[in-house]
Amino acid sequence: MDKMDIAAGHDEIDWGGNIAEERGIKKNTVLLKNVHTDLPNPLPRHVKCTLVKGDYRYFHYGCDGQDDRGWGCGYRTIETLASWVCHNLSPHKHQSRPPPSIPDIQQALVAMGDKPNSFSGSREWIGTFEASLVLDYFYDVPCKLAHIRGGGAQLEHDAVEELHQHFEKHGSPVMMGGDRDNSSKGILGVCTGNKGSYLLVVDPHYYGCQPEKAELQQRGWVSWKRVSSLDQTSFYNLCMPQTASKGT
What was the pLDDT predicted at 13? Predict the structure, then answer.
C-alpha cells in the first residue's frame, strides 16, 4: 500500500544464468513488448498527444510463475517501469540486472528500512511511493511524485499537464494509483482534444498465458481511457521516473 495512497511484440528476457533458476523462472520467459503500438489514436483531431519513448515489456499478474492476483498489481507496474529503464538508459553498474522480482522488491524495501522484516514474503500492496524507492535503489533513477487531490478539473488539467510535460521531457512510463480507485496502472501516454483528454493505460491485472498484442488491445488490457471515466471521487498519485539527465 502506498504511503500516499490509501491503497494503491514478443521479446525474450535474459534473466542471466543462475538468477533464472533461483527465481524458478524459465530462462526464455516470453513477455510482450511495446503493447501499445498500433493502437489507433483516440482523438483524430487532437490538440496534443505525447507518448512513451523507447522500449518496455508488459509485466502482469503471474507472468513469472508467481500467482499474485489480488495484491501484486503495484509490483508488476514497477517491473514494467524497470524494464523501460533496462532498455533505454545508458549502462552503469545497476542496469545490467533485469527488472526486480516481487521478492527482490520486498527485500529491498526491508533493506531500506521502509518496511519491517515481516513484509518479505507477504501479500501486502505497494504503490507509487514504494515505486520511487525501488527505482532509485536498483537503478539510481529518482522519481517525481505528484499528488492529484481529486477528480474532475484537477484530473483533467493538473494530471494531464503533468503527464504531457513528463513524456515530452523524460519519455518513461508512469505509475498511477489512488485511494478509492486503488488499482495500479501504467500510463504510457496522454492525448488532449477540445473536449477532454485520454490516458494510454497498460493494466497489470491480466492473468493467463501470453496473448498476442492485438488480443491484449482488443480485450482492453492496454487502451486509451477518457480521463472523465476515472473515479472522480478518488485522489491519484503519479510516480514519474526522472530520466532525462540520465540520457535516453
Answer: 39
Where would I find the beta strands (DSSP E) of the chain?
10-12, 30-32, 48-51, 143-148, 174-178, 185-193, 196-202, 222-226, 236-241
Chain position carrying cell 501504467: 186
Q: How far is CA 75 from the centre of its chain?
A: 9
Dihedral, CA of residue 162, residue 164, residue 167 and residue 172, to nearest 10: 40
Q: Per the domain annotation, does 1 fall within a domain?
A: no
pLDDT, residue 210, reads 81
Is residue 195 within 8 Å of 14, Cβ to Cβ? no
Q: What dihedral do alpha carbons 165, 168, 173, 177 form, nearest 10°?
A: 10
Could you give the CA distance from residue 33 to residue 129 in angstroms, rounded to a whole number?
26
User: Is 63 known to be catalytic?
Assistant: no
Provide the domain count of the chain.
1
Q: Is residue 165 part of a domain?
A: yes
Q: Please identify which of the residues 60, 181, 203, 239 carries the catalytic annotation.
A: 203
Identified catalytic residue from 46, 114, 205, 231: 205
Beta strands 48-51 and 185-193: pairing type? antiparallel
- What's the CATH number where 184 sits? 3.90.70.130
147 classed as catalytic: no
pLDDT in tens, 59-78: 999 999 999 999 999 999 99
205 assigned to active site: yes
If we measure between CA atoms, which residue out of 54, 57, 75 comes closest to residue 66?
75
Of 49, 73, 86, 191, the catalytic one is 73
